[in-house]
Design goal:
This protein has 230 residues and is mostly helical. The chain has one domain. It contains seven helices and no strands. The protein has helices at 2-57, 60-69, 77-82, 95-102, 111-149, 152-159, 185-227. The longest helix has 56 residues, at 2-57. The two termini are 48 Å apart.
Length: 230
């Protein structure tokens, strides 16, 4: 009788632990599902912003031709400066990922679910590394050259508005007078070359974000169908 009681108690404890783990698994998946939806919303916003930036930067060649012919005809540089002076960075919604890592939650998930989460986080790290190194270096180069190239009184008005709304003066990217401090055509050429590279790198960053969004969207569909989420 004692043996039977001990055995039944053992099975009862295992059952309680199973249901507790199952409930925790559902909570993790639901939380991750909400995080992924937040991620896709943010990424869509950033892709749209990069679209605006790339559309403006596609005027590099015509602006270069204009300024090369007349060093005082710098008005076309206003929007180029506006869309190359700052960036909006994507940060993954990681509340669930931190919980999974800190509380050992991965052991509660099915292997396919755990692997999909790890793969998504790895893609984000690739984006983050690209943004903080290759992209930031290209942007720093453009800004540093501009600081040497631009007249102080014109340049200061471009940099004085809030970076939150990314506006220049009245948000139209209008220069308050000719921009160039000197007739250094080599420096001007350097800035446009750096701007062209910045455009290519912005395109590359947008492609990475698009891939990250596609992965997040597929995970949302996968979890919704598998775990019957709303």
């Amino acid at each position: 009788m004692i043996f039977l009681a001990v055995t039944m108690g053992f099975f009862a404890e295992n059952i309680r632990e199973y249901f507790s783990d199952s409930q925790k698994e559902k909570q993790y998946i639901q939380s991750l599902y909400e995080d992924l939806k937040a991620d896709t919303t943010r990424i869509s916003f950033l892709i749209k912003y990069d679209d605006e930036k790339i559309n403006v930067l596609n005027n590099i060649e015509s602006c270069y031709d204009t300024v090369s012919k007349n060093l005082k005809a710098t008005s076309c540089m206003g929007l180029l400066i506006k869309y190359s002076k700052s960036n909006r960075v994507f940060q993954i919604a990681d509340r669930t990922l931190k919980q999974l890592a800190n509380a050992g939650g991965y052991r509660l998930l099915e292997k396919k679910d755990a692997d999909s989460i790890i793969a998504y986080e790895s893609l984000f790290r690739q984006y983050s590394n690209f943004e903080s190194t290759t992209f930031q270096q290209a942007q720093d180069n453009v800004r540093n050259t501009l600081n040497v190239l631009a007249d102080f009184k014109v340049n200061v008005s471009l940099q004085s508005t809030s970076s939150m709304n990314l506006a220049i003066d009245t948000s139209k990217g209008i220069l308050n007078g000719p921009l160039l401090f000197s007739d250094d055509r080599a420096l001007l050429n350097k800035w446009f070359n750096e701007l062209a590279l910045y455009r290519r790198i912005t395109n590359a960053q947008q492609n990475i974000l698009s891939g990250l969004k596609a992965t997040a969207t597929n995970l949302i569909i996968y979890y919704k169908d598998k775990h019957h989420l709303d």
